[in-house]
# Entry
Amino acid sequence: VINGLTVDYSQVINPPALSNGLFVEVAGETFNVGTGTLTADKVELEDDGISGADDGDVEGYITRYVSPTNFDVAGVPVTTNGQTVYDPEDGAFDPIAANNVNIKVEVEGEVNTSGVLVARKVEFKSGDSDDDGDDDSIDGRVAANVTAVTASTLTLAGVTVTVTPTTRFEDQTGVVDQTFGLGDITVGNYVEVRGTPGDGATLTAVIVERDDDGDGNLEGLLRGPVTLIANPNLSVLGVPVITGGGTQFRDSADNAFPDAAAFFAAISDGSEVQVQFTQGGGTIVADEIELED
# Structure
């Protein structure tokens, strides 16, 4: 047990010998909210922390939220104060203040005498991101110039995107000192959305990012489950996609398929693919289509 968090480390290979009072780092992918138990895949002994306080570091999803000074990360109670530093990439935007339960964060700080982690730094993770910022735990992705915006949706590449109170907005256009949200997005903005596919050509946004391209020069992208497979055509995220002589077909290791027939033989309804296409036409013609893991 660490600060009230129960850790099941029975699956850890060759765990260190543990005793009360040792300072450890624990990592795991599974947290049972009902039992408050983290299933660990790593347990490491660490040096003692700062004199007069216990160092603490927890990474996971916000599982309980009352206020910015009273919430849990992976079951660990956390508080913030006036000295807490937020990830500078997020600027003034504070997802915790927006009550974003289930957003992924990493918190560094000290554990006080009440067993609460007092955050020295909070970094927002957006799921299990890899080094290039992609989030492979999110099933749908679309990037293109916006063609329509309403009070709660935006449309791009034929996909209607719904935003929710927990959608995270990021502005990469270089504009500073502004609050950024759906109301700041206009037709023609280049936007990348990651989220959960719905029925038809719909997506519920987890992350909406605006990039600095209003001229349609950046390549369009669709990533999601395949339906309506009929060589040489298919639908991705519910959007019809055409392939042709200029389309490159690749597998999940980025190797080229010998031909279109081999690619279509390798996919089935529900397979995840990523499509890159040139913007400008009403029909999406794939420049490259890649089968994903």
Summary: The first strand starts at residue 6 and ends at 8. The first helix runs from residue 260 to 266.
